[in-house]
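request received
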Amino acid sequence: SAVISQKPSRDICQRGTSLTIQCQVDSQVTMMFWYRQQPGQSLTLIATANQGSEATYESGFVIDKFPISRPNLTFSTLTVSNMSPEDSSIYLCSVEEGGRKKYEQFFGPGTRLTVL
Amino acid sequence: RKEVEQDPGPFNVPEGATVAFNCTYSNSASQSFFWYRQDCRKEPKLLMSVYSSGNEDGRFTAQLNRASQYISLLIRDSKLSDSATYLCVVTNNAGNMLTFGGGTRLMVKP
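response:
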């Protein structure tokens, strides 16, 4: 399966600031996704990021708060804007490889964000 | 009602035991089904897809009952290394959006 890396792996930020998380894949993929996993919770999809089009956001998530870029088929960024302590969470990107593994998603290692 | 429901556990079992996890889902038109495993402070990793006919991978057996909207995972001969949270995952009608259950925590003890 694809090798996925994320930067930073963790960060501690002050409220009101923004953080951009990078997701890099070692192969070209069409579908990339961003998830949030709050402490003790399961994963919630934030948005789907496809190259060449605007990201599609799930209910409860908006572009102003979580702008996403997808400049090519191997890279995406998620920005957490104007952060508050409620944004403290793990942010994970995932990819769908397609082909025989259609609908199977593989996850990056995650970015652990703490907002003070 | 949650879209994907799991018993959060924890399930505490001795090594060598057989343990089964269940999961129910609300969207009858869901296309694909998976079990993921998540270790503490790690990302989820795909354990296995779940097919209508049921499928087995070594000590792991997954079953799907579409009529009852129910998925199961059976682990035989539990190992200490099986200790993790097991996430039931269901896709939407188009198959391209994953919905995660809350996870079932398994602890295998010596």
